[in-house]
Design brief:
The chain has three domains: 5-155, GTP1/OBG domain (Spo0b-associated Gtp-binding Protein, Chain: A), CATH 2.70.210; 159-330, Rossmann fold, CATH 3.40.50; 357-424, GTP-binding protein OBG, C-terminal domain (GMP Synthetase, Chain A, domain 3), CATH 3.30.300. The chain has eight helices and 18 strands. The protein has helices spanning 171-178, 228-231, 254-268, 289-298, 317-330, 371-379, 385-397, 400-406; strands at residues 5-11, 44-49, 63-65, 85-90, 93-97, 103-107, 113-117, 148-155, 161-164, 196-200, 208-212, 239-245, 277-282, 344-346, 357-362, 365-369, 414-417, 420-423. The longest helix is centred in the middle third of the chain and has 15 residues, at 254-268. The radius of gyration is 32 Å and the shape is elongated.
């Protein structure tokens, strides 16, 4: 099954907690603090693989989690860093933040990597908090929480040449004749329900990949028929083979069909119309098609690139493929709109400006909210008195105490930050 649009959730690993520990060794009086730092949590990394051509696997697994870093150890030993989690996607996958709609990155090359969620950094052990006033601190930091993102993966097939045209104009037949691909072929519209890829092998050695895209109809750019579902795959093709049916009994006008498809491509992405196009009149083995071809040509400008064929009789197919290869060699490469061109890209949340708020939740209870305050709580180790006192001092330095007093808090009232509640004094 061909799947080209999925939503997944990724969660990077939490950093390991710093340790509170002291040296207890013979002949080492007043050994001092020896708590090591926690290890970094695991990253979530997307990796492109040109051997894949569908996002089918993500229909069965949509949540990916990385392991947390190891906690700090005694004797100043650091915790082990967690291994990253690699998620393999097809080359040509665009990655979007589902919550904001922002393009995070575009994986277009084999083995290209994109870090979508960084693991949390490890907390510092008490070895870092010793000073001249407190030589035996019972203070350590918890590891930083990991990141969680909701992503939308959108696959846009990477093919050198794309076949476009109305349904039943012979795209699948041409693909089957020109390559070893075996697409479904039948005498009814919309036989092709998903893109098919094939490799055209030429005697010159200038091979290329060709994609048979599902038939377009008028209104496709607005979702009519198979609509915009597969128009995105035309974006990455460097040369367009526009197939036009010359069957005099099909009840349609070839020139109107040609203009209609061009119009839909332009509505979807105007850049597509700037790429080299070869017009391919098809079904010339049918009686009366020659007259229709002459009439069609008379309505086209003199400088158009046109190659009539009959896929059933294989007439003109080899010449078309050789000509397409020549056009492809001279075609401009497509520059993808991504943030940078580094082989490995990294995405991090854009932190919002912190806004400390205090809400009254009852006669004697208050709730404090704010990104910096919540982050402080998550990273504070409150198992020891020294850690609690440090947490209280830092809250005061952030202005939490003044904000609570301004909101009417009095000694004895309860204050809640996230899931932690304490008494205000």
């Amino acid at each position: 099954m061909f799947v080209d649009n999925v939503k997944i959730t990724v969660r990077s690993g939490k950093g390991g907690d710093g340790a509170v520990s002291f040296r207890h060794e013979k002949y080492v009086p007043l050994g001092g603090p020896a708590g090591g730092d926690g290890g970094r949590g695991g990253d979530i990394i997307l990796k492109a693989n040109e051997g894949m051509n569908t996002l089918m696997d993500f229909r069965y697994k949509r949540i990916f989690k990385a392991e947390p870093g190891q906690n700090g150890q005694i004797k100043g030993m650091y915790g082990r860093k967690a291994d990253p989690v690699y998620i393999v996607v097809p080359a040509g996958t665009s990655v979007y933040d589902e919550d904001t709609g922002k393009l995070i990155g575009d994986l277009t090359e084999h083995n290209q990597e994109l870090v979508v969620a960084k693991g949390g950094s490890g907390g510092r052990g008490n070895i870092h908090f010793a000073n001249s006033k407190n030589r035996a601190p019972e203070i350590a930091e918890n590891g930083e929480p990991g990141q969680e993102l909701h992503l939308r993966l959108e696959l846009k097939l990477i093919a050198d040449v794309g076949l476009v045209g109305f349904p039943s104009v012979g795209k699948s037949t041409l693909l089957s004749v020109a390559t070893s691909a075996k697409p479904k072929i039948a005498a009814y519209h919309f036989t092709t329900l998903s893109p098919n890829l094939g490799m055209v092998k030429l005697d010159s050695g200038l091979d290329f990949v060709i994609a048979d895209l599902p038939g377009l109809i008028e209104g496709a750019s607005n979702g009519v028929g198979l609509g915009i579902q597969f128009l995105r795959h035309v974006e990455r093709t460097r040369v367009i083979l526009h197939l036009v049916d010359m069957d005099p009994e099909n009840g349609r006008d070839p020139y109107e069909d040609y203009l209609s498809i061009r119009n839909e491509l332009g509505k979807y992405d105007g850049n597509i119309l700037k790429r080299p196009e070869i017009i391919v009149p098809t079904k010339l083995d049918i009686a009366g098609s020659d007259e229709r071809l002459k009439e069609f040509k008379s309505k086209l400008p003199d400088d158009v690139d046109i190659f009539p064929i009959s896929s059933i009789q294989h007439t003109g197919v080899k010449d078309l493929m050789n000509h397409t290869s020549t056009v492809l060699q001279n075609a401009e490469p497509i520059h993808f709109d991504v943030e940078n061109d580094d082989e490995t890209k990294e995405y991090n949340y854009e932190a919002k400006a912190d806004r400390l708020t205090v809400e009254k939740d009852g006669e004697h209870s208050f709730i404090v909210k704010g990104e910096d305050v919540e982050r402080l709580l998550q990273r504070s180790n409150l198992d020891h008195q020294d850690g609690i006192m440090r947490f209280a001092r830092m809250l005061k330095g952030m202005g939490v105490e003044d904000a609570l007093i301004k909101a009417g808090a009095q000694s004895g009232d309860s204050v809640t930050i996230l899931d932690f509640t304490f008494e205000f004094i």
